[in-house]
Each structure stands twice: as C-alpha cells, then as structure tokens.
Amino acid sequence: MFRSSKRFIGFPCAHRRYAHEGRCAWVHGYSRSFEVWFECAERTPLTGFVMDFGGLKTIQRWLEERFDHTLLLDAMDPLLPEFRALEARGACKLTVLPDVGMEGTAKYVFDEVDVMVRALTGGRVFVYSVECRENEKNSAMYVREGREGGI
Q1: Mean pLDDT for back-to-back runs of 10 residues, the chain (151 residues)
Q2: Alpha helix ranges (H) inside the chain
Q3: Structural domains in the chain?
Q4: Using N-to-C axis directions, what is the helix angle for 57-67 and 102-120, rounded to 10°?
Q5: What does pTM read for this prediction?
C-alpha cells in the first residue's frame, strides 16, 4: 500500500464541551488543523501520485465551511437553542457535531472526507487516517480499522 498526506491548516474556531466539569465547558477557541493520510494499492500511472493534491479544493472548501470562524457545539448541548438564537441574530456561525472534541472531530472529518476522496478518485484512494489538532500541544487521530480500506 502507498500513503501520502496533506495538511489543512488555519481554521480559527471556538467550541465548548458542555459536559466537562472544568473550564472546557466555557466557549473557548483554537486554530484547528487537520492532517489527512490517503492510501491506495495502485498509484496513478502517469504521475505516480497516491493523491493529486491539486484536486483537493472541494475538501478545502468543505473544511472552511465547517471550521473557519465557526462556533462548534455538541448536538446534545443543552444551550443549543440559545446559541441558535445568537446565530439568527448574527452573533456567530454554528457548526453542530455529534462530538466537538478532537477525537470526535477527527472521526467526523474522516467519515466525510473519505466519501469525497473515493468519489474524486473513482474508489482508487481512501482515507487511512485523520489527525485533528487544536494547537501545538493537543491532537487526536482517527485511524481506519483493517488493511483493506474497503477496496
């Protein structure tokens, strides 16, 4: 199997972990970044690429839409109605996720980007892993189970 990676950086956003008993329950922000690892059994014949990075503009735009200057909230956040009211008044742009933590965000991005990559490559390439980083010190990664990648 061949692998290559692409880093997507500079997504300033805020989030809160409503169930946390400490400071993480408060709205706070980071500049998130993502490293996506691609995998395939056969590289493209002419270039030898695993993934043509020039074709990733759709993924870049998708990440910008969800993570650039947004407020990330858990779908189960009890204050979600109040935050939706603030969004309606123009105070914030919400992205609601099943789990806004680094681990949950890595899985969410993995699942969504894998579908896009398979479509872009006719199923030749799949996502092997996604690392979600909230700063220089903290990150989490979601890695595909097994070796087949569904190919």
Answers
A1: 94 94 93 95 81 91 97 97 97 96 96 96 94 93 74 45
A2: 57-67, 80-88, 102-120
A3: 2-143 (3.30.479.10)
A4: 150
A5: 0.90
